[in-house]
Amino acid sequence: MKKSIASFALSMAWILLSGNALAQTSKEPVQGIVSGNVSILFQSYQEDSLIGAVVPPSKAGFNAFSNINYNQGNFSAGFRYESYLNSVLGFPGRFKGSGIGYRYARWADKEKGVDVTIGNFYEQFGSGILLRSYEARNLGLDNAMDGVRLILTPFKPLVVKMLYGKQRLDFDSELINGDGIIRGIDFELALNDLIPTFADSKLKITPKYSFVSRFQEGGNIVKDTLILELPQNVGAWDYGVTLQYDMWKFGVSRTEKINDPSADNGFIYKQGEALMYFLSGNIKDLSFLLQRSTTDNMSFRSDRDLLLFDAPINNIPTITKTHTYNLAATLYPYATVINGESSFRGELYYRLKRGSALGGKYGTKMNLVFATSYSLDTTHLSGVDAITYGYERNSWGFGNSLNVQDISLEIERKISKNFKAKAMYMNLRFNTLATPVTTDFKGIVYADIFVLETQIKTAKRQSLRTEIQALLTEQDKGDWATIVAEYTWSPHWFVSVIDQYNFGNPDESKRVHYLYGSAGYINGSHRLSVGYGKRREGIFCVGGVCRAVPASSGLEVTFTSNF
After folding, report:
1. Among 159-163, 222-226, 274-278, 296-300, which is the least confidently predicted range?
2. Inter-residue contact 537 to 550 (CB < 8 Å)
3. Calculated CA dihedral for residues 518, 523, 525, 527, nearest 10 degrees
4. Are the C-beta atoms of residues 453 and 474 closer than 8 Å to each other?
5. Quick check: 336 and 309 in contact, CB under 8 A?
6. CB 300 within 8 A of CB 315
7. Of 341, 319, 209, 216, whose CA–CA distance to 272 is shortest?
8. Domains in the chain and their CATH numbers?
9. What is the DSSP letter of 173?
10. Residues sharing a CB contact under 8 Å with residue 6, sequence separation 6 or more, in sequence order
């Protein structure tokens, strides 16, 4: 507790003293601005043997944080105060106590092309496959960098990012960083701005190059009769180019990483590789995206001994669509197979014009997505090579084992001034051996998902939104249905209810209604919500990163505010 108070006092003094120093040295002092936000999540638990809900010793969970930021001219600084007493189930249980979990100071002078940050910061190079430091609070994931970042623009076409530091790993009344040291540099060059004769050309060419390395104390591992030395320095690099011509855009990138034996790959010494490219365009009312990628042994962590979402340096983008509907998003969410996959995504978006025979009075939007991922095309090695390198990739193509295939069609239409509707059909093939989101079934789940969402304006500033969903399958837990109803009295009040029902479960005793209701009050940027009911056990994913959520029953109170 003393450490937390001391950290808090030092952070406040740092911000105030830095701001005062700036005001004294500036020729025309700029008034400082304080901004921030607060988020509180309280959850109580009660036993429910029917759904397997377990009550922790504390009988409640409490997560809270507040960001306080100070801005004055080119200078900014801030900190985040966090509290886990004890953490809500489903979040990292080792997060505990209260204290400063994030603090930074930054000076950004656009005119001189200098931007320097000390302390904590988030950063991403390119698509993130080489480096992505970010926060996904709903997952309990935070791999913020802690060190120094320098962004230089020596001349307008060139932007150079350099960083050096460690990553956040844990929190116990204060920030705890992982073992590894991360070093990185990223170059982005706008050739059109560099060459005056191409400044007004419709063709925009932007080459990119990034390099990231990790240092971690080495050692030896024993595999069968072999004694193998672990590399202390692991380097990875990514290079590519983006071409844009009017509404058309094409990009390609190639990534390589030297041998990085880790817990993720079974401590093999195979090098990592990735190849990604995409094409997007717009033709009148039709826009499209074609995306192809192959990643091979590209897991990259600041600590080679960790698993799941602890201390990831990079993030391999998921190929499937990010679904928002309950059944499509929570029952079989796909997370990228970090040790390797070959995938493809095609997306079409079409808008039927207003007033046309098919578009109707207000127009109609249509979205079709096809996404699939397979294992790598590989040959398993034998003997000493199998122990050391594991396997050999034969090509950049698809392997024999399906990870996922997701085909979805959405149609959205406004019927009248007071009524609009959206319908979705999704055909899913999901391999639970590749992404183990369930313990009840091992193999491929074949499912059809149907969704109808409607929104009706019932009175001035009042509306009723409903969702009717069904997931039909003969595998795993069988058929599911979800009904959602939300009534809003703008601008302040709302009430909602959701019922998720596993009506097709082969075990009749598990055909449970997961009923949850909530009500809330909104006043500008302040929002209070109170809910009560059952939550099923499952997997919650954001951007291809997932966490397990235990079954729970009880009261939940949330409060958020921005200032």
Report:
1. 222-226
2. yes
3. -20
4. no
5. no
6. no
7. 341
8. 324-342+363-374+391-543 (2.40.160)
9. S
10. none
- Which two structure tokens, joined as six digits, stand for 126? 């390119």
Q: What are phi and psi of 432, to 5 degrees?
A: -75, -10
Residue 362: pLDDT band (50, 70, 90) is confident
pLDDT in tens, 128-153: 999 999 998 877 789 999 999 999 99
Could you please report the per-residue DSSP string of 390-430? -EEEEEEEEEEEEEEEEEEEEEEEEEETTEEEEEEEEEEEE
pLDDT in tens, 188-220: 999 888 888 777 888 999 999 999 999 999 888
pLDDT in tens, 388-422: 999 999 999 999 999 999 999 999 999 999 999 99
Q: Look at residues 314, 198, 210, 207 and name the one whose alpha carbon lies nearest to residue 252.
A: 207
Tokens encoding 494:
């709302």
Residue 399 and residue 378 in contact, taking contact as beta carbons nearer than 8 Å: yes
Q: How confident is the model at residue 2 (pLDDT cuts 50, 70, 90)?
A: very low
- Residue 39: HSE in the Cβ half-sphere, 13 Å Cα cutoff: 9
Q: Would you tell me how many other CB atoms lie within 10 Å of the CB of residue 383?
A: 7
557 pLDDT higher than 50: yes
Cα gap 100→303, rounded to integer Å: 23
Paired tokens of 449: 């998902």
